Amino acid sequence: QTMRGVLWSSYALMVLLGMAPQLLQNCIFAETPVLAEYLPEQDGISAYIVSSYMLANIFTFFYFVLASFVTIPHRLSISCVLLSCTAVSIATIFLWDQYVTIGSTSFSLPILALSFLAGCAGNTSMMIFFAYVSHFPEVFTSAMSVGYGLSGGAAFLLSLAQNVAAPDRLNFSTELYFVLTALLVALGLVVFVVVEGCAGRIRSCTGAAAS
Question: I want to staple 59 with a disulfide (CB 3.0 to 4.6 A). Which of 53, 111, 120, 179 is the partner?
Answer without folding.
Answer: 120
